[in-house]
Amino acid sequence: MRKALLAHVKRVVIKVGSGVISNPAGLEIGRVSAISNDICRLLDRGLEVVLVSSGAISAGKGQLGITGRPQTIPQKQAAAAIGQTHIILRYKETFQAHDENVAQVLLTRDDLSNRRRYLNARNTVLTLLEYGITPIVNENDTVVVDEIRFGDNDNLSALVTSLVEADILIILSDVDGFYEEDPSLNPQAQLIPVVERVTPEIESMGGDTNSLVGTGGMSTKLKAAKRAALSGVGTLIVNGRSENILTRIFDGEDVGTYFLPSQSKLTAKKHWIAFSKKPRGKLVVDEGAQMAVIKRGKSLLPSGICGVDGGFERGDAVRLCDRDGEEFARGVISYSLAEILQIMGKQCSEIEKILGYKYRDEVVCRDNLVLTLEDEEESD
Prior knowledge:
Layout lengths: L1 H5 L4 E6 L1 H4 E2 L2 E2 L1 H16 L3 E6 L2 H5 L12 H25 L3 E7 L1 H5 L1 H16 L2 E7 L5 H5 L3 H11 L4 E6 L20 E2 L4 H5 L13 H12 L4 E6 L5 H6 L6 E3 L8 H9 L2 E7 L1 H8 L10 E6 L6 E5 L5 E6 L4 H7 L7 H5 L13 E3 L9
Parallel strand pairs: 1-4, 1-7, 4-6, 5-6, 7-9, 8-10, 11-13
Antiparallel strand pairs: 2-3, 9-10, 11-12, 13-14, 14-15
């Protein structure tokens, strides 16, 4: 069955966690080489690979004399600046031994939030693949404080999967897959081979990490799988420390946990709105407008807005919330905060009279809107 699921795969995003290629003392060069060799065997089979690799901070902290996890933001930034050069060099050396080339791509949240930069990043990665070069992606931890404090490469790998329209996301972890219980606490815990949908119940089963080298636990991997599923892509979580794990996957071996793709997927643009574009504010809407958006698939009109918050401009993403402040959708707004303050609660026919111009009737057009309810998976 697993081989049949992978038969259509041409483009693969592989995420390598810090716990796979490093330990508390630093980077494990042998593990980097082993994974690189495995990836090169996939390239020989005609697959395209985008590698999302963690480990920069772990690789660089030793030269700063830091043991354990760096405690301050400047320490993390400095360690990442040193370590990223070590990681890319190790990958490059092994790939070149197979007559393959790699390229470094460092991204920030803002790169994927801005539509033009998002498309530029997409074009760069796709061009590298066209030329037979394997992109190695990481967060730009040296300059972006938020990426170090809050970011994780599980999330980044899901965003990259949508960015390049990959056929599968493979997350190399330091565990064999997703278990019904934490196997470190219960050695008898059973591995779940297939997950049809990442429900709230499944998410509650994911724990956090206590690792000295990584930032993401199983909970971040479940979120990544959920986001990839909404792109129509399956996710496989496997043990990256297992020998030749990648070639074994594509030989059809039933390893790890496979998360099935959603049957009703988001378009690439709506996936970007939902997960890549950072909201700059929120609109509070009345019950009638909320039901029109959720139940009848309508756009949001100014008459349904009863409150605003934030400092957004036209073209920014905003959260759509009910009167209790609970988000139910998000989308790209057609008017600025200053303009919304003037037209909120008004009819569409009054917009031009109030502002002296009108971009459109809709404040948030349905084509630029995504539902964010827990149990909602919206298709276009």
